[in-house]
Write a structure and sequence with these properties.
Layout: H1 2-10, H2 12-27, H3 35-55, H4 63-85, H5 87-90, H6 92-97, H7 103-128, H8 139-163, H9 167-181, H10 188-193, H11 199-205, H12 209-223, H13 229-252, H14 254-260
Helix pairs in contact: 2-7, 3-4, 4-7, 4-8, 4-9, 4-12, 7-8, 8-12, 8-13
Length: 261
């Protein structure tokens, strides 16, 4: 982690320039620009709201706010992971022209989508009808855990995709499955109280970090309750371990990756 901090400081200008370029490229070709990152989850919210509330008669009161509070962090995760798989291939020329830590190529889409997610979370506050208060500070450790997990997994997938080109397709299918295995459309309490799943299967389901993360985002933004600090400490350690693993694997393969890409 000390090496990571040193590399972040020494390459901060490169990272900032790449993030700015990524933000510009993601909006320059659209008339509505950054507004699309607000419209995207809102349109998805409308579709799922119609499906769950209109067709199936489920969801409950203020389900639209509940949906939006889950879709924003989910999109940050899935867009960042999808971009991470293609990060090395997309930046092949840059890798050959300059020497820099390859993890920055994965970090850039993570930070770019974090920026968009912050805009979306502000929209959630508007829909929830809450004034900003101290509970917003709880978003910092939650977002940090998500960033560590996303960056760690992204580094691992970036390495695998260099050896296995089909990894991009496999990741797409994996993210689709993970969407339904994560509490984006439904509450965690509903799964726990359903009664049709064995307790061991529920315990296995809760190993998905998005279960904790999405529940924590909703608690802070909608219910204005603090997250489970014990669970947060555990997931912080898990996130740090995943990040360290991803960085180690990427650094050890760095020389070989420059030949493969």
């Amino acid at each position: 982690m000390l090496r990571l901090a040193q590399e972040l400081v020494s390459h901060r200008h490169l990272i900032a320039a790449q993030v700015r370029a990524e933000l510009q490229s993601s909006t320059v070709n659209y008339r509505l620009g950054l507004l699309w990152w607000v419209l995207n989850p809102l349109l998805l919210m409308a579709i799922y709201y119609f499906l769950v509330r209109g067709v199936f008669g489920r969801g409950g009161q203020n389900y639209h706010v509940f949906l939006l509070a889950g879709l924003i962090p989910w999109q940050w995760f899935t867009f960042a992971i999808g971009a991470s798989v293609r990060a090395l291939e997309r930046n092949r020329d840059l890798m050959l022209q300059a020497k820099f830590p390859l993890f920055t190529l994965v970090l850039v889409p993570c930070l770019t989508n974090l920026f968009f997610a912050l805009i979306g979370l502000a929209v959630v506050l508007v829909f929830a009808g809450h004034w900003p208060d101290l509970h917003l500070l709880g978003l910092v450790p939650i977002a940090l855990v998500q960033l560590m997990i996303t960056l760690g997994v992204g580094c691992l997938l970036a390495v695998v995709s260099a050896y296995l080109p089909d990894m991009e397709r496999l990741t797409d299918f994996g993210l689709r499955a993970l969407f339904y295995l994560s509490p984006v459309l439904y509450e965690v309490a509903m799964i726990k109280s359903w009664g049709k799943l064995p307790s061991r299967l529920i315990d296995l389901w809760q190993l998905n970090p998005l279960v904790f993360l999405l529940e924590s985002y909703r608690g802070l933004l909608i219910k204005q309750v603090w997250p489970d600090w014990g669970a947060l400490a555990i997931w912080t350690l898990v996130g740090a371990a995943l990040l360290q693993l991803g960085l180690v694997v990427l650094r050890r393969q760095e020389h070989q990756l420059c030949k493969l890409i």
